[in-house]
Specification:
The chain has 419 residues and is mostly helical. Helices cover 83% and strands 0% of the residues. Helix 1 packs across helix 9 and helix 8 runs antiparallel to helix 14.
């Protein structure tokens, strides 16, 4: 007797190229539809309403990663488990769904009391973001049981919803609140159908009671998910500074630029999740040291690039003509360069953190702790750079935060481990 559940066969081998392409196509179409949505809506609403919409989504994007913490934990833990696999999968569903239900309930109250208020707009944006995160988690569980086609179908259907609602909004000129409510309604239907296709034991639980697994599994889930949540909160901090400094209209250009960066990084993050079960198995025991050593090399690259960026930026701000170029409202070329640089640094740091996190559970306090430091560094940099430089200052703050994170994490790894 092996103790394996026939409803939950482990999938720990790297995915086949054909499956990867199919999955990337589904997620890619969804990302493209969201990007096109932004371009279409700015023509329908104008700078003011689009700025409100972009600010709401930007401030709430971090919620997308709250349910995703449970997915990361499952992708790391389930391939290593035997007797408790079904119970852990069921606990994953519950941990991911609980915050979604709370946000949905708050949104319903806000829409009932003051449907045209900013609170209703922000809570609807929050519900859209966190529900998307839950769909990612459910799709991750489907991949673990060898049903990756359900992942691709779910996000392809999501792209259809985004495209249809966006076209109707452009034609009818629905306000941002209505647009988000309709997006959310379509996403909830897809989410319900996807969750219903999970195996019964993965929904009900089997074997070991969930409350016995919750302390250890809950800690791992919180620490694994905290890094991504704090990373996205860094971007949300820039939106907050834009709003507080009276530059809400600049949220639109920053949001569109951030979409370009996040599109690439999201696909990379998704690739890492596709390979996480196999990497988790490979990096147990002696494989962990090699993973940490490779991560330290990548962090060193981010550190050096970030320091060089800080020096060049400081020199540029000291020269009046260069400072005027950085602060120009139509400085899209400069903004594009900053976006490209930030994307490369974020992707490199993301892979380094991925390697570290999949070694053992003891290092999770290091990655989550450095994410807190990076958030503080980004917030302080944004407070200094965003008011005079706008979107360019926002991306400069993100780069500086990434550099600080790389510096701190590399030194903590060297202090705790020898390579």
């Amino acid at each position: 007797m092996t103790g394996l559940s026939p409803a939950a066969p482990p999938v720990v081998a790297p995915p086949r190229p054909a499956a990867v392409l199919r999955l990337l196509a589904g997620r890619g179409v969804f990302r493209v539809s969201v990007q096109l949505m932004g371009l279409v809506l700015i023509t329908a609403w104008g700078a003011h309403d689009y700025g409100r919409f972009a600010t709401a989504l930007g401030l709430m994007t971090w919620l997308n990663f709250v349910p995703g913490a449970a997915e990361k934990s499952a992708l790391k833990a389930v391939p290593r488990l035997r007797l408790t696999r079904d119970a852990v999968a069921a606990l994953t569903v519950r941990l991911a769904a609980a915050p979604v239900l709370v946000v949905l309930a708050a949104m319903v109250v806000a829409l009932a009391v003051a449907p045209e208020s900013d609170a209703a707009l922000y809570l609807t944006a929050a519900a859209w973001s966190i529900s998307g995160g839950l769909l990612m988690t459910v799709s991750g569980l489907h991949r673990l049981r060898g049903k990756s086609i359900l992942d691709a179908l779910a996000f392809t259907a999501g792209s259809v919803v985004v495209g249809l609602v966006t076209c109707l909004t452009w034609l009818v000129r629905w306000p941002p609140e209505t647009h988000l409510v309709l997006l959310l309604a379509g996403l909830v239907v897809i989410l319900g159908a996807s969750a219903a296709l999970l195996p019964g034991p993965w929904l009900r639980g089997a074997g070991v009671p969930g409350h016995r697994l919750l302390p250890a599994y809950g800690r791992s889930t919180v620490l694994l998910g905290l890094t991504e949540v704090l990373d996205v909160l860094s971007t949300s901090a820039v939106f907050a500074v834009l709003a507080l400094s009276g530059r809400t209209t600049d949220s639109g250009p920053f949001y569109l630029a951030a979409l370009v960066s996040s599109a690439f990084c999201s696909l990379l993050f998704y690739q890492l999740k596709l390979h996480q079960p196999a990497v988790s198995r490979r990096m147990r025991g002696t494989g962990a040291a090699g993973g940490r050593a490779r991560a330290a090399e990548l962090l060193k690259l981010v550190e050096r690039a970030g320091i060089g960026f800080a020096v060049v930026l400081g020199a540029g701000l000291a020269v009046p003509s260069t400072r005027a170029l950085l602060a120009a409202e139509d400085g899209y070329v400069v903004l594009g360069v900053f976006v490209l640089f930030e994307t490369v640094l974020y992707a490199t740091g993301l892979y380094a953190s991925f390697l570290v996190e999949n070694t053992n559970s003891k290092v999770l306090t290091l990655t989550s702790g450095t994410a807190v430091v990076a958030l503080v560094a980004t917030g302080l940099s944004a407070a200094l750079l965003v008011p005079p430089l706008g979107p360019v200052g926002g991306f400069a703050a993100l780069v500086l935060g990434l550099a600080v994170k790389a510096v701190v994490l590399r030194r903590l790894l060297r202090r705790r481990h020898s390579f």
